[in-house]
Amino acid sequence: MTTLLQQIEDMRVHVNDLANAEQGLVKALGDALNRADQKLLHDVRSVAAEHELRRGTILKELQSLASNIGLLPAPRESMAMLESAPREVPAFPVQEEQHAIRRGDWRQAANNIQDELDFHLNGRTH
What is the pLDDT of residues 8-24, one digit of tens each? Predict the structure, then answer.
């Protein structure tokens, strides 16, 4: 029986050694995963910081563009004189149902373009 007790004791020691080795491997794996997590977190923060830097640069460019929109050179005096000069009366009679278009009325001109497009496009589709 001593041999059986000795074999059981040897087996217990062997199992304890295996358990300690496995515990060491699990701890090493946990440490490796923690290092990988820390590196990933650092990489994500770096990418986010680079993105914010690029975003800030783009935002500054857009703000600069927005501040420059609408800044056109002042009209020259000769152009102002031409605009204030009286216009000649047209040689053809203006019918009452026609609306007189004011000089420089870009809104009316844009509506006229849209009306012409509608007329031609609707005429071809029907």
Answer: 999 999 999 999 999 99
